[in-house]
Amino acid sequence: MVTLSIDIGNTKIKAGIFIENEITETFVFDKNEIGKIESLVRKFLPTHTVLSSVGETFVGLENMLAEKSKFIKLSHQTKLPFTSTYQTPQTLGVDRIAAVAGAVGLFSDKNCLVIDMGTCITFDFVSDNSEYFGGAISPGLNMRLQAMHQFTKKLPLVSFRLISEFIGNTTETSILSGAFFGVVGEINQTIERYEEQFGPIQVITCGGDSALFDKHIKRDIFAAPFLVLYGLNKISSINV
After folding, report:
1. Is the pTM higher than 0.85?
2. Which of 159, 204, 222, 226 has the smallest set of CB atoms within 10 Å of its CB?
3. pLDDT (average), residues 179-204
4. pLDDT score of 103
């Protein structure tokens, strides 16, 4: 069985080829290059395709995938490898659903906290008996920088760059410190609060900004940049 998993995010598209549940190829391209997916279909001839999109619907793409393969578009109504106590499943982001499915596939016997660091930062907790509880959503790094400029009269719009000093000695470095180390503190305190409630947990990180923060997390982590793709493949495999 050859499966093409497709994750359409806010700015990037990730795709992965799975052969008998083993990932063999990964691809990352800009959202305006969506036509590249058809090229992947022609090249790899997947028997199964699975898609998650956090934003708009791509009718032409979905029709093509359905014509060429057994196609699943992920939604809250799709059969999942975990149970859920989330009270508004219809509003739960498909990227969060897929990431949790990926965590269950990798660590089915552990309490897992998935931290996805992209446009927003999401925290999602799934227990060692594969029960999804929910989590949190907060602004991502660049969103924080943009908000400080947009909602004040004098703070400049700062492009992110890594700084070595915790204490900013200019307005620019103060903004960068506040945004970056604010996220660091949020992540570490959130992990501590989950540990207080549930005991030992496996922390899994993913998302475009995760590499910036991984070394600042005060716990052993499992970095999984393609966690959503693994989760999509897991979901596809139980919907055959």
Report:
1. yes
2. 159
3. 97
4. 97
Give the list of residues 6+ apart from residue 108 with CB closer than 8 angstroms, or none: 128, 130
Positions marked active-site: 95
Q: Which amino acid is at 209?
A: D
Please check whether residue 3 is in contact with residue 50, taking contact to mean a CB–CB distance below 8 angstroms. Answer: yes
Going by C-alpha positions, the residue among 203, 157, 165 that lies closest to residue 181 is: 165
Distance between CA 219 and CA 233 in Å, rounded? 28
* CATH fold of the domain at 135-221: Nucleotidyltransferase; domain 5 (3.30.420)
Name the CATH topology of 2-107+230-238. Answer: Nucleotidyltransferase; domain 5 (3.30.420)
The whole-angstrom separation of Cα 213 and Cα 179 is 12
